[in-house]
Amino acid sequence: MKDVFAKLASDFFSTIVFLAVYFATDNVLLATGIAIAGAIAQVARSRIKGETLGFMTWASLALVIVLGSATLLTNDPRFVMAKPAIAHFAIGAIMLKRGWMLRYMPSIVVQTIPEYVTLAGYAWAVLMFAIGAGTIAVAATGDIKLWATYVTLVAAGLKIAAFAIQYVLFRIIVTSRLRAAARA
After folding, report:
1. Considering only CA atoms, which of 25, 160, 142 is closest in space to residue 80?
2. What's the per-residue H, E or C state across the chain?
3. How remote is the C-alpha of 33 from its chain's centroid?
4. Which of 174, 40, 65 minimizes the C-alpha distance to 117?
5. pLDDT at 3
6. 20 to 30 A from 41, CA-CA: which of 77, 98, 99, 116?
7. pTM for the full model?
């Protein structure tokens, strides 16, 4: 579980940096510039350490540079505010692959309820698309405080709630199936 949160923090590093600097300074341009520098430094650090960088890391860096630069050139924060939506859409598209979630599940879940895991994978894709659409809708208002609240509380809260619901449902269904098999 610790690895999951570390990976998420790494994937959203530039957004986290942007939000932290923005909340500390109330300056969109400064926050954008530091987020761009942070994303470049993060990739440079990984390369120096010899870590293999995946597609999402490179895509994230490109988005930070392109959208951050557009924000700096136009003084319009909506460009940088769109980055998390693009990430959610990309992740949602990846999650449309049948059975993607099976590799992340304990073997007892995979063996007992693979069809529910596949269904949950599609539900996660829908959630990612919905969060991305919400991010775009909020970013379109140009209200950076509303956007920051959405991406930190609403988007994260929806994912935590979905994870908790999935965990409880999977536990109930697996337990029920195992008990039924034991009685048979």
Report:
1. 142
2. CHHHHHHHHHHCHHHHHHHHHHHHHCCHHHHHHHHHHHHHHHHHHHHHCCCCCCHHHHHHHHHHHHHHHHHHHHCCCHHHHCHHHHHHHHHHHHCCCCCHHHHHCCHHHHHHCHHHHHHHHHHHHHHHHHHHHHHHHHHHCCCHHHHHHHHHHHHHHHHHHHHHHHHHHHHHHHHHHHHHHHHC
3. 22
4. 174
5. 65
6. 77
7. 0.75
Please, which pLDDT band fits residue 23 given cuts at 50, 70 and 90? confident
CA distance 83 to 93: 16
Contact 14, 35 (CB under 8 A): yes
Tokens of 92: 């949602």
Residue pair 68/80 in contact by the 8 Å Cβ criterion: yes
User: Which residue shows structure tokens 């829908």?
Assistant: 126
**Mean pLDDT rounded to a whole number for the chain:** 89
131: left (phi over 0), alpha (psi -120 to 50) or beta: alpha
Contact at 8 Å (CB) between 127 and 159? yes
Distance separating alpha carbons of residues 101 and 124, to the nearest angstrom: 9
Among 159, 163, 162, 139, residue whose Cα is nearest residue 149:
139
